Amino acid sequence: MTSEQREPTSRLFTAIPLSRDVRAHVASIALELSQGVGEVRWVPPENLHVTLRFLGDFPDSKVPDMVGWMQKASAHLPFELDIGGVGGFPSQGSARVIWVGAIDETGAAGSVYDIIDKGAGMCGLGRESRRYRPHITVGRPRRHPVKISRDTAERFAGRFLKLEVNDIVLFKSVLKSTGAEYTEMQRVGSPT
Questions:
Q1: 127-174: per-residue pLDDT in tens?
Q2: In 3D, which of 172, 163, 53 has the Cα closest to residue 105?
Q3: What HEC string does 75-143 produce?
Q4: Residue 28 phi, psi (nearest 5)
Q5: How far apart are CA 132 and CA 121, in angstroms?
Q6: Angle between helix 63-73 and 108-122 (nearest 10)
Q7: pLDDT tens-digit profile of 75-130?
Q8: Which fold has domain 9-189?
């Protein structure tokens, strides 16, 4: 392949899909948050998910390999996450990402992530250096980081719902002027 013939890529990420009840729960938290937090671009309910590994511009030829790693990771399915609480990255005082938490009591989500991250490395991407923290991104400030006050965080502290995780999904993300549009490319379920 010459330098003029670049391999086709797609903007991809792996994620845990939300059940209908959990999606409604998270969307209601985001709606309530939107009334008290500054200028934020809120994630549409249909795009809500627990991110596993963002793959970025991923070679189309490597997609079957990545699906194979997802199948290896599915050995840890099913498991449960507790969905609730709010916070921000890198900190609540200066949030560039606003999230709803996904508490991984058993460590299964971390194990799934580790396998997928290893697979991403084997497919030519660098391994992630940050520790994996399961979460659902619900908003991103438009211009400047926002503050999530302690009062706001405490208001949502006791509102949790269980998510039974049965699947891992590979999504394609297309950036449009109206926001990102996600398309499910592959779904891998529990091997049992």
A1: 888 889 999 999 999 889 999 888 888 988 888 999 999 999 999 999
A2: 163
A3: HHCCEEEEEEEEEEECCHHHECEEEEEEECCCCHHHHHHHHHHHHHHHCCCCCCCCCCCCEEEEEEECC
A4: -70, -35
A5: 15
A6: 160
A7: 999 999 999 999 999 998 899 999 999 999 999 999 999 999 999 999 998 888 88
A8: Cyclic Phosphodiesterase; Chain: A, (3.90.1140)
Is 135 part of the annotated catalytic residue set?
yes
Nearest alpha-carbon partner for 33 in 81, 94, 100: 100
In sequence order, the 6+-apart residues with CB closer than 8 A to the CB of 3 are: none
From 25, 49, 76, 144, active-site residue? 49
Of the given ranges (34-38, 53-57, 121-125), which has the lowest mean pLDDT? 34-38
Q: How far is CA 161 from the centre of its chain?
A: 17
Give the DSSP letter of residue 166. Answer: -
Residue 192, CA distances (Å) to 75, 106, 114, 163 in order = 9, 19, 21, 18
The pTM of the full predicted model, rounded to 2 decimals, is 0.91
Q: How confident is the model at residue 4, as a pLDDT?
A: 58
Query: Could you give the count of Cα atoms lying within 13 Å of 192 in the half-sphere of its Cβ?
Result: 6
**H/E element, 184:** strand 179-189
Indicate if 49 belongs to the active site. Answer: yes
Q: Which residue has the tokens 């084997």?
A: 122
Query: Taking a C-beta distance cutoff of 8 angstroms, is the pair 26, 130 a contact?
Result: no
- Choice among 25, 76, 135, 144 that is catalytic: 135
